[in-house]
Amino acid sequence: MKKNLLLASILLTSVALVACSNQVQTQANSSKTTSSSSSQDSTSSSAVSSTQNSEESQVIGSDEYGFVKVPKSWVRFNEVQGGNDIQYSDGTDVNIVTLNTFKAEQFGISDSEFQKLETVRISDSIFTSKESNPEFTKVWGSKSTIGGYEAYVVNAISKSGKYIITWIFKSSDGKFRYVALEGTPETLKNLLPMIEESWTIQK
């Protein structure tokens, strides 16, 4: 995936971001016995789910790019124009996870100038790049969290119908991070929560 971003793009105005909120409906327990039983069932179910996730997934990444979980059957590959990305796929060129970290030289600025950048400015440049690319039929921005960090998200749909979700965020070590998930709607449904919940700085 190309990330040859121009400094001029960074000065663009911020993309209007949309955040969705979920409403959680709770029900009162009829008795202490029922409450205790439900709690035990929930804990047991959660433990089983966690074990299954560990058995069916693998941790990929590096100290430089961070780490994330992907399905155990996925394999590493090098996209022709992927640069120094870490990329894994299901064996096709459709469903792909990409990890990288932005650096000052990509923007033609000094390290001190780079550290003063706001994350939203970097996401703006990615948004503008995709919006001007005729390969995409729809591009929009949103916000989410990944690995506990607030992230700006650039969403895009290609002419082939493939979705590309890109998280841009600044981790606690001061690095600007790039995580992308490409794939079919079904792939996103299964992997998006795994990506957002599992990303970490250290393995």
Question: Can you characterise this structure?
Answer:
The chain has 203 residues and is an alpha+beta fold. It has helices at 7-10, 32-56, 111-115, 119-131, 185-198, and strands at residues 57-62, 66-71, 75-77, 86-89, 96-101, 136-146, 149-158, 163-170, 176-183. The strands form 2 sheets. It has a 7-stranded antiparallel β-sheet, with helices on both faces. A two-stranded antiparallel sheet has the order 1-2. The radius of gyration is 19 Å and the shape is globular. The chain starts with 6 loop residues before the first helix and ends in a 5-residue tail after the last helix. Mean pLDDT is 80; it is low at 1-52.
List the helices and strands and how they pair.
Elements: H1 7-10, H2 32-56, E1 57-62, E2 66-71, E3 75-77, E4 86-89, E5 96-101, H3 111-115, H4 119-131, E6 136-146, E7 149-158, E8 163-170, E9 176-183, H5 185-198
Antiparallel strand pairs: 1-2, 3-4, 4-5, 5-9, 6-7, 7-8, 8-9
- State the shape: globular
Helix content: 25-40%
Q: State Rg.
A: 19 Å
Order of helices and strands: HHEEEEEHHEEEEH
* Main sheet: strands, sense, barrel: 7 strands, antiparallel
Average pLDDT taken over every residue: 80
Number of helices: 5
Q: How far is the first residue's CA from the last residue's CA? A: 24 Å
Structural class: alpha+beta
pLDDT < 50 stretches: 1-52
